[in-house]
Amino acid sequence: MSASKRDELLAKLFSPEGKPSALEGIRVVELSISNLVGSMVGGLLRELGAEVVRVEPPDGDPLRELSPYRVKVKGFGIPYLIENAGKKVVRLDLEREEDREELRKLLVSCDVVIDALKPGYLDSINLGYRSISGENPKVIYLAISPYGHFSKKAKEMSNVPDSDLTAQAYNGYPSLIGNPGIRPTPLRAGVWVAWAMAAICAVNGVLVALYERLKSGKGQFVDIATHEALAAVHTYPITVGFLFGRPRPQYGFIDYLVYPYGVFKTKDGYITIATPFDTDFRAFLKLINRWDLEPDWRYAADRVTDDVDRIVELDREIRRELMKRSSEELIKKSLSRGLLPEALRRLVGRPVIVKSYTLKETLSEEHWYIRRSILRVKVNDKEMLVPNSPFRMSETPGKMPIEKIFAQEFLTKEALAAMTSRRDEESVRTS
Amino acid sequence: MSNYFEYVEELFKSGEKRDPPLKGIKVLEMTHYVYGPTVGATLALLGAEVVKVEPVGEGDRFRTAALWMRMFKKANLNYLLVNANKYVITLDARNAKAREILFKLASKADVFVENLRAGLLDILGLGYAHLSKVNPKIIYVSCSGYGQYGPLSRAPSFDVSAQGIIGLAMKTGWPDVDEFYKLPDYFGDFFPAMVAVAAILAALYYREKTGKGQYIDMTQAESLFRFFYDVTYLSLTGEEIGKTGNVDPLAIASGIFATSDGKFVAIAIMDEGQLTALSKAMNVDLLGPYKGRLRTKECISELNDLIFKWASSRTLDEIMSYAKTYGFPAAPVLTDLDVYKDLWRWERGSTIEFEDRMYGKVRIPRLPIHLSATPPRVRWLGRPVGYHNRLVLKKWLGYTDEEIKKLEEEGVIGYWDQSPGMCPPDAWDIDNDPVFRGERDECE
Question: Cβ–Cβ of A274/B160 closer than 8 Å?
Answer without folding.
Answer: yes
